[in-house]
Design brief:
Number of helices: 35
Shape: globular
Strand content: 15-25%
Structural class: alpha+beta
Distance between the termini: 67 Å
Strand order of the largest sheet: 25-26-28-29-30-31-32-33
Number of strands: 34
Largest sheet: 8 strands, mixed, barrel
Length: 993
């Protein structure tokens, strides 16, 4: 009986102090007793209430009432408390006394479902019920065993101790967590080996919890290390509740839960945060070293290293070692290059299995370590996968204890994050390099030249010296480039750059400005004579022929020169003046140089004439705005429009902005023109809004307007003049090529405007001189990818890389991205797959008068290809499959136009099946990737047939046009077969993805 009394005390402590829902009800449904947790949840005492008043929902109406009236055991019911909190309740009906015990806990039901022995035990007890003479004893014994089973089913460990600190009871979870043998006695006296740290005094009879005047129930709780029987430790959250009899300490109940995974998750989160901090200030290799250091700390290892897997998973690059490993443990860090796997033991095994491999024994001698590699006793290797292939291997070793599988998961997640940050950092560094250097020649580009020019101008003024700015352009390069082809022309430009570089003095700067144009900054010139000598020396490099693809090519060049401070203008104006002088040299006589002189004053007067006419036109109301829609390619919604200025000239007709805006933007009237555009756009937005069209509008603003001292106040006045138009619908676009004097001041102006609700965008991003500087310092909301990159990205891999890089950069800086220059449906498909879904361009709509916008919006629908691209995610290698439909349809429409209109020539249309977009894919990456897939052979046959029919129809156009038109239906039918075969390949590719 003493043991049963102690068990009752234990159960009472659980009812009163642990978060377990316990209700005892009679056969009439009236609650006799309820735990403190149940009454706290209900917010009132439950004794005397009917169960139907407490539970507001059951598995089936009346299920509990029916159970109260029928003998039943072990029934799990889904209920909700009167407050609506969902519970799973275990109901146990006592047949003899007609009582029901309802037990609920977030962890208990799941454990009960998994542990069938609980129900089996109840059935056995019911089957073996003793005779009525032993009924009372059996009922008590069943109750104890039932409650013990419930405690054993709990997910938390429960330990009862007597007043002396001896263990008197442990549930199954406690035995499992502490590593106790199931049948080991629990009353073997004080057991200090299981608890230590802040909670270790629980095993001491003099601890406060076990004292007669100890703290109230639940006062002792927290997290600490617990020690298992085998000596290993684990973190646990615990609560300790004292047991009292007649005011004296009778023992305590300890409830604890393994917190190892939670602690590991917290440590992993801290490690990931550390990676982000390193990414802000360090190099890409620093990110991986920090990750390896963190993996070593998280696992308690002595060494750590990361290998890049190369050469088709046949070699390792020993790239990154942990800081601890580098400190005298390993000499391999001094070596470079790849190391073949051959029989690489755990490394080769991890690559082959695509999963972590752990060796807690027998590592020494089991794998041929390269010379200088630190010795390994225990090791864990985790593969880092990318697109199904092993991209790298993270290894930690020489831990004092054994490695566990959960540590492999943690290291894998950490290294996956590290590799993603590493690759993003490398992409940013590459983009930064592309910002300052030309990708083709590796010379400084216009950005870096302008930066160095600004510094050189300051030095020249301080030292009272002179410097020359030269612009050189190749004469007649285009026909040579057309003859050589794109790759041959690029090789020729590289040869030219190498020769020019050899003529540049140390300290001077040679840059490629774009195309076949080069810039040269020459410091410390003594006068015109020095400039002449520089020009003659540079032009002399073209005296000898250039050898390209076995051809000897002679080139010539023209050069323009201006000298600072004799030409006292700003840096960009110096380049422009040298460029003007170069064009003058071309017009005067090729293979010559020319200095900037008074001839350019004449051009300046021409500019003044343009400005005067603009002022007249502005006063006479000759300017108007056209609007080009911006759409969300995924949803097909029109999300805005860009306002574009047009000049309705009385003599020359409708003039595009390129005819006058460059001159206007560099003048004082830029502010007035800009304010007219803003006012007109706001007024038009108000008119559209009155018609129910809430269309955001973006407006280009010049650098001079943005940097005007009163810009914020003027904008506030313009917005106040149109109170019906929400400022949030106005977006101001800053040309990324604009020259901004003080980025800090401009940033403050932008933030002041954003405080009013106005949004900002960086327009033509990637074409100017300060892309990253502007992006880093200007708080723009939107990046607009320049149309030149978007327009050519399907045919130019470099442009595709730039577009992808800008989208990645925009995502990294949390900017919205808009692509300009979408002229074909294929452009939209690629952009959607790359993560950019906002676009504008001629393929959507040309700029139009305001009166046509609303009607256009009502009838516009997105291309079907964009709908498909929005629904699927296609691997990068299979993007051509998504755009092939639209590219083929474009080709087909051009053939149809030739036939329908009776053109005698199909110039510019690829009639050879090997020259079109589809044919190039079939003969290259398509065959490699899908040549053995279903549908590929049918697709190839259909493609040949389509081109054969096209050639036949074009030929008939010259001899029998009606017959050609009659056969056009055959071409469209063959095209349908082609699309059907393409769908088979595309479906298979998407299924694999």
């Amino acid at each position: 009986m003493a043991e049963r009394d102690l068990t009752q005390q234990l159960l009472g402590a659980v009812r009163d102090g642990a978060p377990i829902y316990i209700v005892r009800a009679g056969g009439d449904g009236i609650i006799r007793e309820a735990s403190a947790f149940a009454e706290n949840l209900a917010g009132r005492p439950l004794a005397g209430a009917h169960v139907a008043q407490v539970f507001v929902h059951f598995d089936a109406p009346g299920s509990l009432e029916a159970a109260l009236q029928r003998p039943a055991r072990g029934r799990l019911m889904h209920v909700a408390t009167e407050q609506g909190l969902p519970f799973e309740i275990y109901a146990d009906i006592s047949c003899e006394e007609g009582e029901t015990l309802l037990v609920g806990h977030p962890d208990v039901p799941a454990m009960l479902r998994e542990r069938r022995q609980f129900l089996d035990l109840q059935a056995q007890l019911h089957h073996n019920t003793r005779a009525s003479l032993k009924r009372s004893y059996m009922q008590l014994e069943q109750s104890e065993r039932r409650h013990q089973t419930i405690l054993d089913a709990a997910g938390d460990g429960i330990v009862a101790m007597d007043a002396e600190g001896r263990f008197t009871y442990t549930n199954e979870a406690a035995r499992r967590l502490l590593g106790l043998v199931r049948d080991e006695p629990v009353d073997a006296g004080v057991q200090p080996r299981f608890l230590h740290g802040p909670c270790g005094h629980l095993c001491n009879p003099g601890c406060p919890v076990l004292a007669d005047n100890g703290p109230a129930a639940g006062d002792l709780s927290g997290r600490q290390l617990f020690r298992r029987q085998d000596g290993s430790d684990f973190s646990a959250d615990f609560v300790c509740t004292p047991l009292r009899e007649r005011g004296r300490a009778a023992g305590a109940v300890l409830v604890f839960r393994d917190a190892s995974e939670r602690v590991a998750a917290e440590n992993l989160l801290k490690a990931r945060a550390g990676l982000s901090e390193v990414a802000l200030r360090g190099a890409p290799a620093d990110i991986l070293r920090e990750a390896v250091d963190a993996a070593q700390r998280l696992t308690g290892s002595a060494v750590g290293f990361f290998h890049f897997v190369t050469d088709g998973e046949r070699s390792l690059d020993f790239t990154v070692w942990s800081s601890d490993t580098l400190r005298g443990q390993c000499r391999m860090a001094e070596q470079s290059g790849s190391h073949p796997l051959r029989q690489g033991g755990i490394w080769a095994e991890s690559i082959a299995r695509r999963e972590a491999v752990i060796r807690n024994y027998g590592v020494a001698g089991a794998m041929p370590l390269p010379e200088g590699h630190v010795g390994l006793r225990r090791v864990m290797t985790v593969p880092v996968l990318r697109d199904g292939a092993v991209h790298g291997l993270a290894s930690v070793g020489n831990k004092p204890g054994d490695y566990q599988a959960r540590e492999a998961v943690m290291v894998g997640e950490l290294m996956q994050t590290a590799l993603e940050i590493y690759e993003r950092k490398r992409a940013e560094d590459r983009l930064r390099h592309l910002t300052f250097y030309d990708a083709l020649t590796e010379l400084p580009n216009r950005v870096l030249l302008a930066d160095r020019l600004q510094i050189a101008m300051s030095h020249a003024l301080r030292e009272a010296s002179a410097m020359a700015v030269c612009v050189l352009d190749l004469d007649g390069f285009k026909p040579v480039n057309d003859r050589l082809g794109r790759e041959g022309g690029d090789r020729l430009l590289r040869h030219v750059a190498e020769r020019l570089k050899a003529q540049v003095r140390e300290g001077d700067t040679l840059a490629r400005l774009g195309g076949d144009e080069f810039g040269l900054l020459v410091l410390r010139v003594q006068g015109v004579e020095d400039c002449v000598r520089v020009a003659e020396r540079v032009l002399q490099v073209f005296a000898a022929p250039f050898e390209v693809d076995g051809q000897s090519l002679y080139l010539a060049a023209s050069m323009g020169i201006t000298v600072f401070p004799s030409d006292p203008v700003e840096a960009e104006a110096l380049i422009r003046h040298a460029d003007q002088a170069m064009y003058a040299a071309k017009q005067d006589a090729r293979s010559r140089y020319k200095l900037f002189d008074s001839e350019f004053d004449r051009r300046a007067r021409a500019h003044q004439e343009i400005l005067a006419n603009v002022e007249v036109g502005l006063a006479a109301g000759q300017f108007l705005l056209h609007y080009q829609p911006k759409v969300d390619m995924r949803s097909g919604r029109v999300v805005g429009a860009e306002a574009l200025i047009r000049w309705q000239h009385p003599r020359d007709g409708l003039l595009p902005p390129a005819r006058y805006m460059p001159v206007v933007d560099a003048s004082d009237i830029a502010v007035r023109v800009g304010e007219w555009v803003l006012d007109t756009a706001l007024r038009q937005m108000g008119e559209w809004q009155a018609e129910g069209c809430l269309l955001p509008v973006s407006v280009n603003i010049a650098a001079s307007q943005l940097q005007a001292p009163d810009f914020v106040d003027r904008l506030r006045c313009l917005l106040a003049a149109h109170p019906a138009v929400p400022p949030e619908r106005l977006e101001l676009e800053i040309l990324e090529t604009a020259t901004l004097r003080n980025l800090g001041d401009v940033s403050r102006v932008i933030r002041a405007c954003q405080a009013m609700g106005v949004r900002f965008a960086l327009d033509d991003f990637g074409t100017g001189y300060s892309s990253l500087a502007y992006l880093r310092n200007l708080p723009a909301d939107v990046l607009k990818i320049d149309q030149s990159f978007v327009r050519d990205m399907l045919d130019d891999p470099e442009d595709m890389a730039i577009v992808e890089g800008v989208i990645g950069l925009s995502t990294a800086f949390r900017r919205e991205t808009v692509a300009e220059g979408v002229e074909r449906a294929s452009h939209g498909v690629i952009l959607i797959q790359l993560g950019c879904h906002l676009a504008q361009g001629y393929g959507i709509a040309r700029p139009m008068p305001a009166a046509r916008m609303v009607a256009w919006m009502r009838q516009w629908t997105q291309p079907k290809e964009w709908e498909l691209a929005s629904l699927v995610t296609c691997p990068r290698e299979d993007l051509p499959l998504l755009i092939m439909v639209s590219e083929h349809r474009l080709w087909l429409d051009r053939i149809g136009e030739v036939v329908e209109l009776g053109h005698a020539s199909a110039e510019g249309i690829a009639l050879d099946e090997h020259q079109c977009f589809v044919g190039r894919w079939l003969g290259g990456p398509g065959r490699v990737r899908h040549g053995d897939k279903p549908g590929f052979a049918d697709f190839e046959v259909a493609h040949r047939r389509v081109h054969a029919l096209a050639r036949e129809l074009v030929g008939l156009c010259r001899t029998d046009l009606p017959a050609a038109r009659g056969r056009l239906a055959d071409l469209y039918a063959a095209s349908s077969d082609l699309n059907a075969a393409l769908n088979v390949i595309l479906s298979a590719a998407l299924a694999e993805a």
